[in-house]
Amino acid sequence: MTMRIGYGYDVHCLEKGRPLILGGVEVPHTKGLQGHSDADVLLHAISDALLGACALGDIGQHFPDTDEQYAGADSRNLLREVVAMVRARGYEVANIDATVVAEKPKLAPYVMRIRQNIADDLQVDRSQVSVKATTSEAMGFEGEERGMSARAVALLIQEKV
């Protein structure tokens, strides 16, 4: 069996007038994340972790913000495309471990739905997807509520035949 590990990181500014989408779930908040797509910082970090594990670059290379076809794109669709790339190379997702850093809102009520969305998109069991949320203790851009960030680690496996 071959195993590969990938790491992803993403960050977006917060702005009024946009919905806050995390893990494909609209989370009630006074601000949303700014970006060319739906700016789902969590799914972007996971996508980058998966791409990184296969040495396929990052989501900006595959879905550039200069391409109008991705304007307002649903990041769940982008994640599913990334999973297809990973599978085309013979790998399956063993697990994902991700953390969202945001001062507000509290994400605990949404984590199970977020995990299920991600598991569905990865075609794995929810037990293979960990999503955590933390604050930055009022420090930095996350603590000042100017933005959010996410980090993710992906473990991929390939059965030898």
Class by alpha and beta content: alpha+beta
CATH architecture: 2-Layer Sandwich
Number of strands: 7
Overall average residue pLDDT: 96
| CATH C-level category | Alpha Beta
* Strand ordering within the main sheet: 4-1-7-5-6
**Low-confidence segments, ≥5 residues, pLDDT <50?**
none
Shape label: globular
The fold-level CATH name is 60s Ribosomal Protein L30, Chain: A
Query: Fraction of residues in helices?
Result: 25-40%
The topology string of helices and strands comes to EEEEHHHEHEHE
Question: Helical element count?
Answer: 5
Q: What distance lies between the first and last C-alpha atoms, to the nearest angstrom?
A: 9 Å
What is the gyration radius calculated from CA atoms? 15 Å
EC number: 4.6.1.12
Catalytic activity: 4-CDP-2-C-methyl-D-erythritol 2-phosphate = 2-C-methyl-D-erythritol 2,4-cyclic diphosphate + CMP
Pfam families: YgbB
Subunit structure: Homotrimer.
How would you explain this protein's 3D organization?
With 161 residues, the chain is an alpha+beta fold. The protein has a single domain, classed as 2-C-methyl-D-erythritol 2,4-cyclodiphosphate synthase (60s Ribosomal Protein L30, Chain: A, 2-Layer Sandwich). It has five helices and seven strands; from the N terminus they run ββββαααβαβαβ. The strands form two sheets. Strands 4-1-7-5-6 form a five-stranded mixed β-sheet. Strand 2 and strand 3 form a beta hairpin. Helix 1 runs parallel beside helix 3 and helix 3 packs across helix 4. It is globular and about 50 Å long. The model has no long low-confidence stretch (mean pLDDT 96). It is an enzyme of class 4 (lyase). Belongs to the IspF family.
